[in-house]
Amino acid sequence: MTGFSTPTIVLVHGGFVDGAGWEGVYNILKKDGYNVSIVQNPTTSLADDVAATRLTIARAQGPVVLVGHSYGGAVITESVFGMPGLGYTAVQSITQQDLPVIIGVVIVAAAAVVVANIVVDAFYAVLDPRVRLH
Q1: How far is it, in rounded angstroms, from Cα 103 to Cα 109?
Q2: Which residue range forms the structural domain that includes residue 118?
Q3: Which of 18, 86, 92, 132 has its CA 20 to 30 A from that of 32?
Protein backbone atom coordinates (compact mmCIF):
# COMPACT_ATOMS: atom_id res chain seq x y z
CA MET A 1 0.00 0.00 0.00
CA THR A 2 2.73 2.39 -0.92
CA GLY A 3 1.61 5.97 -1.46
CA PHE A 4 -1.42 5.77 0.81
CA SER A 5 -1.48 7.58 4.13
CA THR A 6 -2.89 5.93 7.21
CA PRO A 7 -6.48 7.05 7.68
CA THR A 8 -7.77 8.69 10.81
CA ILE A 9 -10.64 6.65 12.17
CA VAL A 10 -13.25 8.84 13.83
CA LEU A 11 -15.53 7.02 16.26
CA VAL A 12 -18.96 8.58 16.92
CA HIS A 13 -20.99 7.21 19.83
CA GLY A 14 -24.72 6.75 20.06
CA GLY A 15 -27.08 9.04 21.91
CA PHE A 16 -27.16 9.39 25.68
CA VAL A 17 -23.79 7.69 26.14
CA ASP A 18 -20.22 8.78 26.54
CA GLY A 19 -17.41 8.36 24.02
CA ALA A 20 -15.69 6.06 26.52
CA GLY A 21 -17.86 3.26 25.14
CA TRP A 22 -15.40 3.10 22.24
CA GLU A 23 -12.37 2.55 24.52
CA GLY A 24 -11.88 -1.11 23.58
CA VAL A 25 -12.12 -0.39 19.85
CA TYR A 26 -9.85 2.64 20.25
CA ASN A 27 -7.15 0.57 21.98
CA ILE A 28 -7.23 -2.15 19.32
CA LEU A 29 -7.03 0.34 16.44
CA LYS A 30 -4.22 2.33 18.08
CA LYS A 31 -2.30 -0.90 18.68
CA ASP A 32 -2.67 -1.70 14.97
CA GLY A 33 -1.12 1.68 14.10
CA TYR A 34 -4.16 3.73 13.13
CA ASN A 35 -4.80 7.36 13.99
CA VAL A 36 -8.00 7.30 16.03
CA SER A 37 -10.24 10.05 17.38
CA ILE A 38 -13.36 9.68 19.50
CA VAL A 39 -15.98 12.40 19.15
CA GLN A 40 -17.18 13.54 22.55
CA ASN A 41 -20.68 14.64 21.58
CA PRO A 42 -22.34 16.96 24.10
CA THR A 43 -25.70 15.16 23.49
CA THR A 44 -27.55 18.45 24.02
CA SER A 45 -28.97 18.53 20.48
CA LEU A 46 -28.38 17.01 17.08
CA ALA A 47 -26.94 20.32 15.86
CA ASP A 48 -24.42 20.42 18.74
CA ASP A 49 -23.42 16.80 18.13
CA VAL A 50 -22.95 17.50 14.41
CA ALA A 51 -20.79 20.54 15.26
CA ALA A 52 -18.59 18.43 17.57
CA THR A 53 -18.25 15.74 14.90
CA ARG A 54 -17.36 18.27 12.19
CA LEU A 55 -14.71 19.77 14.47
CA THR A 56 -13.15 16.34 15.04
CA ILE A 57 -13.20 15.62 11.29
CA ALA A 58 -11.59 19.00 10.56
CA ARG A 59 -8.76 18.27 13.01
CA ALA A 60 -8.04 14.86 11.50
CA GLN A 61 -4.96 14.41 9.35
CA GLY A 62 -5.19 12.54 6.08
CA PRO A 63 -8.18 10.55 4.93
CA VAL A 64 -10.99 10.01 7.43
CA VAL A 65 -13.04 6.88 8.08
CA LEU A 66 -16.20 7.56 10.09
CA VAL A 67 -17.58 4.83 12.34
CA GLY A 68 -20.75 5.18 14.37
CA HIS A 69 -23.58 3.23 15.88
CA SER A 70 -27.26 3.98 16.48
CA TYR A 71 -27.69 7.74 16.88
CA GLY A 72 -24.08 8.22 15.79
CA GLY A 73 -25.20 7.27 12.27
CA ALA A 74 -27.57 10.25 12.15
CA VAL A 75 -24.81 12.52 13.45
CA ILE A 76 -22.37 11.23 10.79
CA THR A 77 -24.95 11.66 8.01
CA GLU A 78 -25.70 15.23 9.02
CA SER A 79 -21.98 16.01 9.45
CA VAL A 80 -20.93 14.66 6.07
CA PHE A 81 -23.79 15.88 3.90
CA GLY A 82 -24.28 19.15 5.75
CA MET A 83 -28.02 19.41 5.33
CA PRO A 84 -30.95 18.36 7.46
CA GLY A 85 -32.12 15.05 6.13
CA LEU A 86 -33.49 11.74 7.23
CA GLY A 87 -31.45 11.68 10.45
CA TYR A 88 -32.62 15.15 11.45
CA THR A 89 -36.22 14.29 10.57
CA ALA A 90 -36.04 11.11 12.63
CA VAL A 91 -34.64 12.87 15.69
CA GLN A 92 -37.14 15.73 15.46
CA SER A 93 -40.13 13.43 14.98
CA ILE A 94 -39.08 11.23 17.90
CA THR A 95 -38.68 14.21 20.24
CA GLN A 96 -42.07 15.54 19.11
CA GLN A 97 -43.66 12.07 19.23
CA ASP A 98 -44.92 12.43 15.65
CA LEU A 99 -45.80 8.78 15.01
CA PRO A 100 -46.74 9.01 11.28
CA VAL A 101 -43.40 10.68 10.47
CA ILE A 102 -41.50 8.14 12.59
CA ILE A 103 -43.17 5.30 10.70
CA GLY A 104 -42.38 6.98 7.36
CA VAL A 105 -38.73 7.49 8.29
CA VAL A 106 -38.41 3.87 9.41
CA ILE A 107 -39.99 2.59 6.18
CA VAL A 108 -37.74 4.78 3.99
CA ALA A 109 -34.63 3.80 5.96
CA ALA A 110 -35.56 0.10 5.85
CA ALA A 111 -36.19 0.27 2.10
CA ALA A 112 -32.82 1.95 1.60
CA VAL A 113 -31.09 -0.82 3.57
CA VAL A 114 -32.85 -3.52 1.55
CA VAL A 115 -31.93 -1.88 -1.77
CA ALA A 116 -28.32 -1.34 -0.64
CA ASN A 117 -28.03 -4.99 0.43
CA ILE A 118 -29.40 -6.22 -2.90
CA VAL A 119 -26.95 -4.02 -4.84
CA VAL A 120 -23.99 -5.10 -2.69
CA ASP A 121 -24.95 -8.78 -3.02
CA ALA A 122 -25.23 -8.45 -6.80
CA PHE A 123 -21.83 -6.76 -7.09
CA TYR A 124 -20.31 -9.29 -4.71
CA ALA A 125 -21.45 -12.09 -6.97
CA VAL A 126 -19.89 -10.34 -9.97
CA LEU A 127 -16.61 -9.51 -8.24
CA ASP A 128 -16.03 -12.84 -6.49
CA PRO A 129 -16.17 -15.85 -8.83
CA ARG A 130 -16.58 -18.20 -5.86
CA VAL A 131 -20.10 -16.83 -5.33
CA ARG A 132 -22.79 -18.09 -7.67
CA LEU A 133 -26.27 -16.77 -8.29
CA HIS A 134 -28.95 -19.49 -8.26
Answers
A1: 10
A2: 98-134
A3: 18
